[in-house]
Structure formats: C-alpha cells, structure tokens
Design brief:
By secondary structure, the chain is an all-alpha fold. It folds into two domains: 63 residues, no CATH class; 170 residues, MetI-like fold (Orthogonal Bundle), CATH 1.10.3720. It is 75% helix and 0% strand. The chain is built from eleven helices and no strands.
Length: 267
Amino acid sequence: MADRAFDTRRLPGAATLAIACFAILYLPMVILVANSFNEGRVIGQWEGLSLHWYGKALQNEAFVAAAKTSLILATLAAMIATITATMAALATTRTRGFKGEGAIHITLNQPIMVPEIVLAIALLIIIAQIKQATGYSGLGYLVIAHSAFCIPFAYMPIRARLEGMDLTLETAAADLYASRFYAFRKVTLPLLAPAILAGFMLAFVISLDDVVISDFLKSPGQDTLPTYLLGELKRNLTSEIYAISSLLLLISVLIVGGSWLLTRKKT
C-alpha cells in the first residue's frame, strides 16, 4: 500500500498546538478591543458599553498630531520603497542570471534578517553625525530610514508577481516592434499593478507600525502613533490608550487584508 503524503493535520496534538498559538496571539487583541468600549475609567472593571474613549481620543491634540505624522511618514516611505522595490524586482527578474545576483538578493532582504534594534542603532550613529554637520533635524531622516527598512516588504510581492507572469504578451509586444518602455507601460505595468499596490500597502503598514527605528531617530515633536503610545504607557494606562491602539489595529488589519485580496490567486 502506498504511503500517505505527509500531512501535519494528522500529527497528534497539532490542532491543539495551533489553537493554543492562535489564542496566545489574538486573545490579548480581543481583550484590548473589548476594553476600549468600557465606559469606566478603572482598568479591568467593566462599567458598561460606550464610545466615550474613542471620542476623547479623537479630541486629543497630541494623538491627532502623532497620527498626522505617522500617515505622512508612512505614505512617503511606502512610495519610495515601492518605487525602489519595483525597479529592483524588474532588474532581478527580467535579465538573465548575472554575477553577484545572490549578493543583491541578500542586500535587499538584509533589513528583514538583521534585528531591527541593530539597524536602528546603526542608523542613529550615521544620522547623528549628519544632524551635527548640517543642523537639519526634520522628518526627512525618518522617511529615509523607514524607506530603507520597508523595501524588502514591498519587493517580495512584486518579485513574486513578476516571476509568475507569462512572458508571452511581452514577447508578442516586442515582435510587433514595441519599444521596451512602451511594452512595459502597456503590457507589464497593468499586469504588475495589483502587486505594486499590494507592496505599497504592506510597506505602508510596516512603516505605520514601526516603533524601534522611529523611537531611536525621531527629533522632538516628531512622535508617531507607536512612539506616542509607548510614551503614554510609561505614564499611565487608560482606556483611551486602548481606544487609540484599537484604531491603529483596525487600520493595520484593513491594509493587510486589502494587500491579501490583491495578491491572492483568482480561481
């Protein structure tokens, strides 16, 4: 009798372990969101269902300023990272194998493999010297740092899409005397657009949620949502923090869900 294919679902305890892992990961989020609707001020003591803390959060000037900074930073960083990742993906998939290709892949994926705190410290050393030499302490440093960190996250879905694309249409366009740029604009880019948008969304949410690099490199008055929440947690834990965290969680879930919808295979 032929051996059955290996199936993790048949392993003893696999389902229990999976359920336990999901519970550990998501139960705290469920508790956080539930407490954000608690009308009372005392943490852990339910006093009724209310949107009071969401209203208070939206009236908090510090929170609104941090939210604006995060949105501007994430948008700029995601745009730069996506453009760079698209060019890198085209260069590594639309050319024949070349010397040093492996080194390029390692370099592009380095921000994922290196601990984020190491990257933050390295950037801090360089940027601190630039700040001292130029006197500039604007948001540009955070934009550059976030862009570099987000490139591999945008690169992965774009490269995967390019590797799975049929080259027949591009070859047909070339046979019909279309220039490389015209073929790219009329054939490749429309087919690649969903992956580019998915890469942008993934880079956006990575930048939006980043706390380590932002906390190390930000100048006074440049709090992002994660660094603002970190600072508030050091002072006092209130239901308003739960509400702000829930809003940030909702934005992240919507963006990641949209990215998944764009990249999933259509049946």
